[in-house]
Design a protein that fits this description.
3 helices; Subtilisin Inhibitor; five-stranded antiparallel sheet; alpha+beta
């Protein structure tokens, strides 16, 4: 990991909530993740921090005016909140269409319960 990546990850502290059966349905799983130093309750924390360091924009939303395949990937939903590379973050994930499935898969390592 480069020095720059280590510095950016030092200001990464996430709270992840996963609803395997969709929001509002039990069970709900919650995890935390900090990087540099690595900590929290998320399984495989070191690997997760390394993967986040490699991704350019892991939490980018689906661009507007993009055609998405109408493929349903399941009821799973997740919320990621906290700080990533120093910036405040609060974003939701689901698997309701092809674009959202791709977005989910980009950071699926953060959703071990799904």
């Amino acid at each position: 990991m480069s020095v720059v990546a280590a510095i950016l990850l030092a200001s990464t502290s996430l709270h992840v909530t996963v609803w395997p059966n969709g929001q509002g349905h039990a069970p709900r799983r919650s995890y935390t993740l900090t990087c540099a130093p690595v900590g929290g309750t998320l399984p495989h924390r070191l690997g997760a921090c390394r993967q986040l360091a490699r991704l350019k924009a892991p939490f980018a939303p689906t661009p507007q005016n993009v055609a998405c395949t109408e493929i349903y990937g399941g009821p799973q939903e997740a919320l990621v909140a906290g700080r990533f590379r120093g910036a405040l973050l609060r974003t939701r994930f689901n698997r309701r269409n092809g674009c959202e499935i791709e977005r989910w898969n980009r950071v699926a390592f953060l959703f071990p319960a799904a």
